[in-house]
Specification:
- This protein is of the alpha+beta class and 214 residues long.
- Helix content is 56%, strand content 17%.
- It is built from nine helices and four strands.
- It is globular, with a radius of gyration of 17 Å.
Amino acid sequence: MVKKFLAVIILSAMFLSGCGKEDTPENALAEIKIALAERDSQKLAARADLDEFFSETYDATTLELAKNYDVYKEKYPDDPYFQHSAEFLTEYNGEHKNLHLKFLNGVKESYFAKIPEPETPEENPAAYVANEFEKIRQAANVTIKEVNTDKNSATITLFVEGDDSLRGRLIGQMNFELGFRKDTENRWHFDEIKNLDELTPVLVDKAEIIWINL
């Protein structure tokens, strides 16, 4: 499960900047980009609650994986994770959620602490994934396609395209619909990935490529 979920987290964090005098969703996106580039956890926390995002995305991804479990079971016969049932997946993810989120928290802490990349993934798995996140972030070119703003909510559609590197080719081309909400002080915050139903099958395919080549 971790490799599928991490694919969503890693590839969803590649943001472009925006600007404006009044606070806008584009401003929030710009500050998130800067916070990730500078590895400034406090600056990121002002625009996104990663712990809440990880938890809610974990649950949403579990539902999407279970919904198409039979498809993945047939498509990936060598992956034990997909050789049971949708009920098994749902129960397994529920039982291991805290453990998986603990690992993701370790990835987050390693990223912002700039822990050097270990020689092997086994030496420090969290630091290894954190460094992979940075490499993938740098290999992604992101363009804002559309911004739809309501009174207290907004959706920014991003077009993400990888460069000519190996990681860039793995990224390929994808659209991310990012949901934002406005707080009581009229500040915008990143809230969710709204098109997980479209992204999950694509990200599973990419995660399986990584898993096969490990």
